[in-house]
Amino acid sequence: MDILITGFEPFGGDTVNPSWEVAQALHGRVIGAGMVRACRLPVSFRDAPQRLARALVEGQPELVIALGLASGRSEISIERVAVNLIDARIPDNTGERPQDQPVAASAPDAYFTTLPIKAMRDGLRAAGHPAGLSLTAGAFVCNQVFFELQHRLAGQGARSGFIHLPALPEQAARQNGSVPSMGLAAQVDAITLAIAIALGGVEVAALPDEGAPTS
């Protein structure tokens, strides 16, 4: 089984993005009956959907979890709904800042995740990871990717959704500790468990490196 995990390149002046660090750390890992394949997405309204579409075609995944950074949040935030809206508060990495635009003009107003989100939240909490459900993935590239993911996989039977991650300690340090943070190892452990729960089990094994993650 192919498990696709996406993460984003750094943005907003940062030199690191926990979503990609976690995805990269999980690349090649065997979890349950599947192997994780990581894909790095650009923080670009124009290019991110195209890269996501290629990744979906390349592997025909049965489980897809897109990861993103939510600086200011203190827990693993499992998103419930993607909205058909782009309203950028800052420019993306190409300088574009679209506002009040649909992600897809002919698509529904919103899509719900198809992940077992309450089981994931409860399992993470039981293992000691701070986790919660979120009703907003924002209106930046994270939400755009979440919406595109659900739109492309609608009716195909694959489980898919989006999880926001807290900042890493080094990112918080650059802001004088004014934002909450979570260490990379803890984030990797949490997403590993979240994947296992989404697959219906918690069996985790490691594999030798199967090659570099796609970018």
Automatic annotation (TrEMBL):
Removes 5-oxoproline from various penultimate amino acid residues except L-proline. This is Pyrrolidone-carboxylate peptidase. NCBIfam families: PRK13197.1, pyro_pdase. Its EC number is 3.4.19.3. It is found in: Cytoplasm. HAMAP family: Pyrrolid_peptidase. Belongs to the peptidase C15 family. Keywords: Cytoplasm, Hydrolase, Protease, Thiol protease. Homotetramer. Gene3D superfamilies: Peptidase C15, pyroglutamyl peptidase I-like. It catalyses: Release of an N-terminal pyroglutamyl group from a polypeptide, the second amino acid generally not being Pro. One of its GO terms (molecular function) is pyroglutamyl-peptidase activity. The active site is at E79, C142, H164. Pfam families: Peptidase_C15.
